[in-house]
Structures are given as structure tokens and as C-alpha cells.
């Protein structure tokens, strides 16, 4: 198991819980707005952290930290993911998985084995715009993951990072119909950084975000904005 990043404490990434974050490398998407481009494009050049030291830290924080978020990159590409999740569960931690939904079989297996407790799945755009936004054309696998979560008992959320150049009204009309009935859906404001995959993108104005939210709330009344200053 290669772990390329470790955040020892987050109060935001696992809703309702104090948590740590583990960053795994590699991804099968090329999202233009990706903030972790080095983990996507050149994970082998990223630090290879000591798994033993990380777990030593987590053992010391038992009873203080409540959960661990596994993110990336795309964690479901790692063959060691089930073993990692099991090791975290054996320490008494809740496990949250961040995923792009491209590997529904892995997602279903993790849920069936009770290896994860919460799923955050990114909805990159409307189905027809996936190839443009993230360079991934196998929308059927994404649709399978969406359908699975919609009918699953595991706590989950869907979320979309809103980018001025990449999203429009029609996208949110389509998304809201696609994930209608979901438990939680968040629109997140894009924030530029040095690590972004494609420089030059912009966040939407607060007015634009509220406009998109209003579109979504016609079908998903409990949808919310997240990460808006």
C-alpha cells in the first residue's frame, strides 16, 4: 500500500466527525479542475509515506479521532484498498471513501463487507458532459454507482465542484433529474490553486452559485452550497 499524503486532523472532510485523511495515488479521470494533479499524473514521484508510522499515529489517536477519510487520486483503483479499510476498521475508526464512482464493483464489495461507513461520490457534470469535463466516457459505470447509492442503506453524499467555464444551467437541470431522491447533494465552489490540472479556470460568483442551487432545489429541495466564502 502506497500512501502519498496524510492529514492528521480535519473537521470538515467527514461530516459530524473528527478525522484524518489518507491520500492515495493514480486516477482514471483527468478532471480539468482537479486540485491534486500530482497524485493523478505522477504519483510515483510523490512522497511514499510510512504505513507503519501512520498506523502508529492512528493507534495513539484512538478515542480522539473518530474517522479516517480515504481519498486520492481515485482510491478504488488500489488493489490494497479493502485491506487498508479493514485495518482502519480494526482500530475502531469509521471509514469514509471519496470516489469518482467509476468502479461500482469495488464500491459494492466494500459496502457488502462493511468496510466503509460513508461514501462521498463526485458528480462531475451531466452525463453527456462527462467526457468533456473529466475525460472519461464510460458513463455506464458512473450511472451504476449512482443507482447503487440511491438504493443503498449506507450514508452517502453526492457533490459537484462548480466551475464557471465547465458548467451551465442545463448541466444542473440534468444532474438534478439524474440523482433525484438522493439523501444529500452539495454544490462546491471551485477554488484555484497551484496544483490544479488545467490552470486558468474560474469560480462562479455567489449569485451564479445560488442560481444553480435554485435549479437543483426544484428537484432536490435539501441541496446545499458548500465551501462558499
Describe the structure.
The chain is of the alpha/beta class. It has a domain at 5-161: TIM Barrel, CATH 3.20.20. Helices cover 32% and strands 18% of the residues. The protein is built from 8 helices and 8 strands; from the N terminus they run E-E-H-H-E-H-E-H-E-H-H-E-H-E-H-E. The protein has helices at 37-41, 51-60, 81-90, 104-112, 130-134, 139-150, 169-178, 206-217; strands at 5-10, 19-23, 67-71, 94-99, 118-122, 156-162, 185-189, 224-226. An 8-stranded mixed β-sheet has the order 1-2-3-4-5-6-7-8. Helix 8 (206-217) links the parallel strand 7 (185-189) and strand 8. Helix 4 (104-112) runs parallel beside helix 6 (139-150) and helix 7 runs parallel beside helix 8 (206-217).
Largest sheet: 8 strands, mixed
Shape: globular
Count of β-strands: 8
Query: What is the mean pLDDT?
Result: 95
Listing every helix as H and every strand as E from the N terminus to the C terminus, the arrangement reads EEHHEHEHEHHEHEHE
Structural class: alpha/beta
Rg, rounded, reads 17 Å
Helix segment count? 8
Give the N-to-C terminal Cα separation.
36 Å
State the name of the first-level CATH class of the domain at 5-161.
Alpha Beta
Please give the share of residues in helix.
Answer: 25-40%
